[in-house]
Specification:
About 30% of the residues lie in helices and about 20% in strands. By secondary structure, the protein is α+β, with helices and mostly antiparallel strands.
């Protein structure tokens, strides 16, 4: 019997049965909801209460794997539809997005060349900063993602954030 190589092994290549719009709807509902844990939200809220609305639901692990494919359409949607209007009072803030624990910074290869060591009010971290601009109603006006070492008062980041504000 001939030996099967890795390329000759049969593989399951089932296509994802959830549409991009369904995936985006689930993600948007999560961010507008009060859930703090996406796994709990997906398994016990979407899986139980919205079973009829999403009949071809994927397992949680598979959903997490494929949610990245809707990143560009979701960002386009956020940029065109969901931003609020400038009311004259705006708030600018940033939050850290850590890539790994500080002990693993030297070994991390995931965002090598993109993520940087930065400092926030909570201490040192390795990753990115998400800068947000909101109006007094709490509506998102603009956002920007920068390496962790970019200061909140950096002029380039502020220009990107305020580019479309009137």
């Amino acid at each position: 019997m001939p030996c099967l190589k890795d390329a000759d092994k049969p593989r399951r290549n089932r296509s994802c049965e959830m549409s991009d719009s369904e995936i985006m709807t689930i993600l948007v509902l999560f961010h507008f909801g009060t859930f703090k844990n996406f796994k709990h939200y997906y398994l016990f809220f979407i899986g139980v209460h919205f079973k009829n609305e999403f009949p071809k639901q994927l397992s949680y692990n598979r959903f997490v794997e494929i949610q990245r494919r809707v990143f560009v359409p979701l960002m386009f949607f956020l940029n065109t539809v969901s931003f609020g209007k400038c009311t004259g009072i705006t708030f600018v803030d940033s939050t850290k997005i850590s890539v790994c624990h500080n002990k693993r910074i030297k070994r991390n290869k995931v965002f090598d060349g993109y993520a940087q060591v930065g400092k926030s009010t909570m201490g040192w971290f390795y990753g990115f900063k998400l800068h947000l601009v909101c109006n007094d109603k709490g509506e998102l006006l603009s956002f920007c993602l920068t390496p962790g070492n970019v200061d909140d008062r950096d002029l380039k980041a502020l220009k990107v954030l305020t580019k479309n504000l009137l």
